[in-house]
Design a protein that fits this description.
Length: about 325
Amino acid sequence: MNALVDTTAFLGKFLYYGLESLVHTAIPRRKKDVTGEIVLITGAGSGLGRSLAIKFAKLGAILVLWDINEEGNMETCRMIKASGAPKVFAYKCDCSNRQEVYRVADQVKRDVGDVTILINNAGVVTGKLFLDIPDHMIEKTFSVNVLSHFWTYKAFLPAMIKANHGHLVCISSAAGNVGTSTLSDYSASKFAAFGFAESIFLELALLLKKDIKTTIVCPYFIKTGMFAGCTCKYPLLLPLLEQEYVAQIVVNGILEEKVYLIIPKLLSFALVLKQIISPKMIIALSKYLGMDICMTSFTGRMNADQGQLETERKQL
């Protein structure tokens, strides 16, 4: 009898939530107001992190910027203040260092208050064939791309749970859903980040902390210094993404409290296709899309952010 009741209740909820999802797809949710929310962004000193910081500042949020690159982080801070948003705080923090994360987190709580929107954006990429990746870089990739999420959640999630209010944002990657050649360490770390964020989402839901939201972002390669030199075989079909475009989609997704953001949406189809086609078909598709050569001219961050900096200054 219990099984029958449970099954009936489950099917009823499943149908209701399915219809609810369709309604929200047709009629977008009302965007939440982030005025006065304390938004902490890791990796805010350049790239996507900088763009997100600028956009949230314009929405009236209080910004907390973290980056190991102190100069870049302070430049982001100056750019935001120049735009007329005075409530911004910059801290140098190596997110791969657990003790440093806890120490700087305590300082943020004293200086600013409890973080209510946490955006784990910091990341590194090696861009080499697996056997060419130095051991220390594999460890660094996982420390920054995955383990830092554990430390920041440990630092800021308790206050969110106590208040039953907050938003956790994980910047994963399309490579966190599909294994990618020449990105073995990066792809594995992004798979792990996705799994961690999704697990915490379910854990909070089962704890009935429904007002702590989760957004997991999986973009294709973005035109930032991080993927400098990366190429696209068919730009019309699957182009490298513009940084501002991705940042706006991420901000909108957070404001609409979406759980999953696949960018571009075309990749959602590819993820489903991956589960039903044969391994040889996957290899053929990968070669067709140029995944075997996209990292051939990869150079990484180096000085690639310098040109972006001038463009971003002009936007303000």
